[in-house]
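Q: S9 family peptidase, please. Structure only.
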Amino acid sequence: MAPSPTSPFANLPTPPKAAKKPVSDTRHGVTRTDDYAWLRADNWQAMFKDPSILDPDIRRHLEAENAYMEAAMGDTAELQKALFAEMRGRIKEDDSSVPMKDGPFAYGSLFVTGGEQPHYFRTPRDGGDRQLLLDGDREASGKDYFRLAGIDHTTDHAKGIWGYDDKGSEYFTLRVRDLSTGEDLSDVIENTSGGGVWAPDGKSFFYTLQDENHRPSKVFHHIVGQPQSADRLVYEEEDPGFFMGVGGSLLDDFIYIDIHDHETSEYRLLSTTDLMAEPRLVAIREEGIEYSLTEGGDVFYILTNEGGAKDFKICQAPVASPDKENWTELVAHEPGRLIISHMAFARHLVWLQRKDGLPQIIVRDRVSGEEHAIAFDEEAYSLGLQGAAEYDTDVIRFSYSSMTTPSQLFDYNMATRERVLLKTQEVPSGHDPEHYVTRRVMAPAHDGELVPVTLLYRKDTVLDGSAPCLLYGYGAYGITIPASFSTNALSLADRGFVYAIAHIRGGKDKGFAWYEDGKMQAKENTFKDFIATADHLVKEGFTSYENIIAEGGSAGGMLMGAVANMAPEKFAGIIAAVPFVDVLNTMLDDTLPLTPPEWPEWGNPIESLDEYQWIAAYSPYDNVGAKPYPPILAISGLTDPRVTYWEPTKWVAKLRETAPDAGPYLLKTNMAAGHGGKSGRFQRLEEIAFEYAFAIKMAGKM
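A: Structure for S9 family peptidase:
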């Protein structure tokens, strides 16, 4: 049945119909049949590196979906142009970062007018002419997709490693550049995670290699000038359930090998005085125990939840013997105060914490033990702690913003407590914070918990239930969605929208327990919190059910699929970007890039019947029914290794088959992009303008 003549989607063509090719699978005595399993390319590993080899039948279906989506959204073309122009007008096109001092130089990045990609530069330490190190626009020329991984310089500032992904598959190629000439050397390191760590002598570096299943399973040591085939394997992680990364310390004393999943971690250290040695284990992995290290001269500072410190504590141990039995508590665990990250400098220890739902930066004098917080006044705000590139310093850098206050960058002297404003984000088209309101309200959940909600709207918005609302949510992996300034959200606020962020369980907005209460068997709390947020906003007159457009991406896209199944009548439209909606099938496929590392987050349905049943109860694809779904826009990337393109493709096909009288269901597949969408800064604005045009269309505000 076509939408009614009064629908925003009247007179649509016939939607694509995916062929049904049933495939059955039996686990734990339960048989499920998947009619659309054929949409998963058998050669997906190779296709991520070469999208041209995608099965023609799958390509034809994706292209037909894109054509249908374009027909459905055709009347928003001018609106999209207007939104794009507004968003671009709020960006300072020739913007430059404030360079950070490191030795004889200060390093920074900039964009040029009309440019899509960053340019990296350096100046003399105390100012002077810029030296261009890497021109991202030049490197991206002629490529449909291009993403830089930055550039990391040697201790002597002579060379740099830079990386790029030109397919969206997150397989990065590394190159070595002579920083004096700007020329790349012969080194080409392929299939990496995107960065490397130099040895102090600048003659070699360490990197992680992605295997054929897109997992960073090996750390290699590369000597400049040698072929990749000659690189030495330093460490191999044989458990596919663990991620791995490699990093370095400010003092250049150690190479860190960080091995972790979502609840367990392990570090191995390689002294830079003996690069050929075997990496030294700090503390063997124990399920549920996390720790991370930062070096402070003769001690390591260890951030950990060991010993029941659910919201984390900081310990210290001698550099010479950092084994767990030598850890001594320095900053005690305080329930409800979540310590997020820490940094050490010659005279100070610094950490970022979250308390009462708001971030704080704490500075501790390493000699006296005196602590102080860097204070802020607004009701809801966001902080970013950049620290410093040098160890022997009293000055660190942080950023501050709120939903109404553009980002501000500060240098902060930890000894004198002097705060110096370096830069305020410019909005070339103009922005008056006095025209907007940012608020933090609390929505009662089904079990009595209170869900924080951050709101942005214009002061002249009438709050009688008539305002449209974009309600955003994520709720997974302990990720906290910051209440930060967004120039893009102003385009909705200026059209009378209430822009809302639901800080639901699954994130760490209210401490580690908030995360635990939104994962594994408690996952449905995440979905119920989001629905409770919608209910509260309606009850308080901020909006009405027929005016709420829900949005979420990746794991937040799973949230969108789940709430669409649970309460379709409470949303006027749903935007699901790269949505993780085929949860059960993905968690049953241990060849996929993220499946084994994700089991501690969602459960392992291969090994456990209970965990199979938890996931089966909410997996959006498995719970599609004949329900009054609102219009749904799903967005995916063909080479996305995190949420594979076939998940939203199958979901839309099943929605269309099972509830044909509802919807409509639109699928937009970026045929030359991955998980993050298009890579250029203005290309990304085009995608946001498209999503916002859908929301405005659903709200009847075109």
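A: Brief note, in case it's useful. The CA atoms of residues 245 and 258 lie 5 Å apart.
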